[in-house]
Amino acid sequence: xxxxLSEGKKLAAKVTEILRKSMKKxxxxxxxxxxxxxxxxxxxxxxxxxxxxxxxxxxxxxxxAHVHLKRGSExxxxxxxxxxxxxxxxxxxxxxxxHVIIMENKTGPSRRITDAQELDQEVKGGLIVAQKDLIxxxxxxxxxxxxxxxxIAVSAAGLYWRWLLVERRxxxxxxxxxxxxxxxxxxxxxxxxxxxxxxxKLAKVFQKRPYYVLGTPESDTEWQKLRNDTLIPHLNKHKxxxxxxxxxxxxxxxxxxxxxxx
Length: 262
Hints:
- A 5-stranded mixed beta sheet has the order 1-2-3-4-7, with helices on both faces.
- The chain is an alpha+beta fold.
- α1 (5-36) packs across α6 (217-237).
- The protein has helices at residues 5-36, 51-54, 81-88, 116-144, 200-207, 217-237, 249-253, and strands spanning 62-71, 92-106, 150-157, 160-167, 181-182, 189-190, 212-213.
């Protein structure tokens, strides 16, 4: 089923606005935490002062999902559990869901920097930190969604951001399913960093991408390009496959990859 172009543009505009608001909210939270820190802390905005930037986060900061709904049949019995479920879902049922954008945002560079070269180094350093988390999250994405063949990855450091269209084939050589480990609750999946070593080439490709400053004309132009040339075409062409996200060890062990998309 095709995706209406006008609806796609409206959706993409909302995506852009969500990204803007997300970054704005994170800046406010960081500023509030910085004020609460002891006066002896010399640098409250450096990469090394924020715990979130040191560890590897298993959950992305922002995920944009494509959800396709279909009108369901109204159950005849008004007092049945099926009718309650029908009401809770406003009469619709989900027939497809996938993630089209995955974003990781780390702390931006200090506002005390006065040297342009130092600022560039700080920005690139922050983007690399975000990228490390992002690559692991992408590996989990392709492991959990057996039908996905590509996703838009966005790494950010405060207002600075860059993006890359990442394809499943870039993870060739990575033992996605066999390398999975699970937390104590048996539902939280992760992939140890040692298994992601073959992704060095992907990391280098990402690092060569130019970065932009949110709110500038150049950034707005790039968002438009991302939306029009990559996001909307992807929404238009990919098949509305059933939801395939896996959550337990049993699901992974019995899963087989879905059909590839062209």
